[in-house]
Amino acid sequence: MEEKAYYVHESSYIDENVQIGNGTKIWHFCHVQSGAKIGKRCCLGQNVNIANHVVIGDDVKIQNNVSVYEGVELEDGVFCGPSCVFTNDLTPRAKWPKGRENYKRTLVREGASIGANATIVCGHTIGKYAMIAAGAVVTKDVPDYTLVVGAPGRAVGSVCECGNLLKEDRYCKNCKKVLKEIRQILPGGGGRV
Question: Which terminus of the chain has a lower count of CB atoms within 10 Å, N or C?
Fold first, then answer.
């Protein structure tokens, strides 16, 4: 019998036709549904649900109590904080299900972070290395390297790849990078996202 190159806790369920990359760890009470693809070195915390046909890149960390619904894609290096929420239907009804062909796609780009209890309304893209604060509600696309806070979410600044808040000079005191390719959003300003 071939040994698996990933770990799944005995309390979790992995459906048929699932791809799981080497080094991935799936902890207590998780469910990975048919057609899902999970990359290498990912970590799924307790009580995580990965729905049918979801695609997750490499090095993704999904904290406890997160459901990643069909229509959501997480690129490499994405962080999903505890109990953050994804949706896939803008006008859901229990009595009138629309089916997967009507789900709205949500894309979370490389390195983005979503804070605890944040809500991502479907049909939007969260840009590379963007940071969504705990409890924020995202209702529009989020540009790369943008910090979003509040409900509804609003852009209040820019963040480095390492997560440090950037000042007007766009120089990161933590990793010593200067990020010229981002549009600077001054603290206190910005529009809803």
Answer: N
Give the C-alpha separation, 135 to 132, whole Å.
Answer: 8
- CB neighbourhood size of 174 (10 A): 11
State residue 100 phi and psi, 5-degree precision: -60, -25
Task: Please give the CATH topology (third level) of the domain spanning 7-126.
Answer: UDP N-Acetylglucosamine Acyltransferase; domain 1 (2.160.10)
Domain-by-domain residue ranges, the chain? 7-126
Q: Are 6 and 21 in contact (CB under 8 A)?
A: yes
The answer to whether 114 and 79 have CB atoms below 8 angstroms apart is yes
Question: Using CA atoms, how far apart are residues 4 and 137, in angstroms rounded to an integer?
Answer: 38
Residues 11-47: tens digit of each pLDDT: 999 999 999 999 999 999 999 999 999 999 999 999 9
Tokens of 41: 């070195």
Prediction pTM value:
0.92
Instruction: Write the CB contacts of 52 (distance below 8 Å, at least 6 apart in sequence).
Output: 33, 34, 35, 36, 70, 100
**10 near 26, Cβ under 8 Å?**
no
- R_g over Cα of the chain: 17
Q: Give the count of beta carbons closer than 10 Å to the beta carbon of residue 91.
A: 8
